[in-house]
Design brief:
Layout: H1 9-25, E1 32-36, H2 43-46, H3 53-71, E2 74-78, H4 92-96, E3 99-105, E4 123-132, E5 141-146, E6 151-153
Parallel strand pairs: 1-2
Antiparallel strand pairs: 3-4, 4-5, 5-6
Helix pairs in contact: 1-3
Length: about 160
């Protein structure tokens, strides 16, 4: 876990390699790198600083794909979407991704059809598979959002 702000893709790579090596000494394999969220990674700095945010995010996406291949790990990059359901400040991130998931949840204050469990406040949600390079992309998964726990689960009875 590393919550340093405004890391560059090279700094993320360096830290991932260091963590991989530290874990390997303990007989543990690094299997997952999570970037929360991709728009805060400073790809512009590595491009000389005179670039747009979109170019910086595109560059970061390409570097994260390279990192996944180099270290043979899954890289999970979280992103913020705009009102049209597209990633903010970038078009290349979705293209670079092997798998693209959206989490859709209805706001019960704005949508009268939103489902809320009155016992525990769980709200209905759906994990939508938008793209899956090595499999079907029509495998949406209904789930429940527990806002008090920041948790998604497959049951409304937690």
């Amino acid at each position: 876990m590393d919550d340093q702000k405004s890391l560059t893709p090279a700094e993320i790579r360096g830290r991932a390699i260091r963590y991989r090596d530290e874990l390997a000494k303990k007989g543990i394999a690094l299997r997952l790198v999570i970037v929360d969220y991709i728009q805060l990674v400073d790809g512009c700095k590595e491009l000389g600083g005179k670039t747009t945010r979109e170019e910086g995010t595109d560059y970061t996406a390409k570097k994260l794909v390279e990192l996944a291949k180099e270290l043979n790990v899954t890289v999970l990059a979280l992103a913020q979407l705009n009102d049209e359901g597209r990633i903010r400040n970038s078009r290349a991130v979705e293209h670079a991704a092997d798998t693209w998931l959206d989490i859709e949840r209805q706001d019960p204050e704005k949508d009268k059809y939103a489902s809320v469990n009155p016992r525990n406040g769980a709200q209905s949600a759906t994990i939508v598979v938008r793209k899956q390079r090595n499999g079907p992309d029509d495998q949406d998964a209904p789930c429940w959002w527990y806002g008090g726990f920041l948790l998604f689960a497959d049951s409304e009875d937690l």
